[in-house]
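Comment thread on ticket #2218

A.B. wrote:
> Attaching the input chain for the structure job we discussed in standup.
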Amino acid sequence: MTDQALPVRQSGDWRFKLAEHRGTLLALGVFVFMFALYTANHPAGFSADVVTTASNKGVLLALVAIAQTFVVLTAGIDLSVGMIFVLTNTVASYIAIGSPLMTALGILGVMATGLACGAVNGVIVIYGRLQPIVTTIATGAVFFGLALLLRPDPGGDVNENLADFLTGQLPGGIPTSAVFLLVVVLVIWVPFRRSVLGRTVYAVGSSEQAAYMSGLQIRRAKFLAYALSGLLASIGGLFITFVTYTGEASSANANTYTLNSIAAVVLGGVSLYGGRGSAVGAIFGALIFRTIGDLLFVFDLDPLWQPLFLGIVLLISVCLGSFRLIRVRNRLELFG
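C.D. wrote:
> Ran it. Output below, let me know if you need it in another format.
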């Protein structure tokens, strides 16, 4: 009887894992197809330089998308990630410079800044009992004001050796930025996903009432999600400093990365309803969104039409992310 039950159980586990990672696998397939189409029509073809340039641009949005993922998993939306991204960019342009030791301390300072911003969001949402959207709109305005105070005009500096390394290539033409993103996932996302608080974040997004009745540490889990969101946004702010060699309090960049991060998590299979999805899926969603912009460039679409087209893609992606919520009859169907 046990031998007969084992194959059924294994089959059920296989189906569950496939359903769990369906969004990520779909995003991966779409990205591979679109990137192949992009390189096939690029004048330089599939070359190390083309891949590195695409990787550098994609990693920037991917880091902000991971930041957004932590909050979305709790059934919230963080509209301040772009502002934290810009704020830490301006901070990095002041302190991530000098000798290797000074640069290392500066990087820690930038990450601490992002962590603090995320912690402020978490405290207000948890203890102030305010809606995440309202909270992060308000705090985002404060964060951007601080960025503008630090850098009223673009400027600053960066450790050029480190910047050249992170935006360059490893032996074999492998983009360093892609390896950097992989390290971030292994060091931050994987331990989070396997931790008790990480699983609690998913439980909170699925049903906060049920998580509370189960005795889970809801407040700690939500605080961790917001703090890690700020941390990942600050890593994105660091990386854009290494890419641009400067700091800039740009409201356009802040708003663009915030909205695109929402589109990326939806394209990556993360449910706006909370409790379902993965940062890995959000990464592929970010790469898809970036590749769409590259395809528009390759096919020589009029630049005036590009924002309209990307806006339509953003609208469609959010609608697709909400479509499943309309079809479900109860919350159990969404997570079953």
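A.B. wrote:
> Thanks. Noting for the ticket: The chain has a mean pLDDT of 86.
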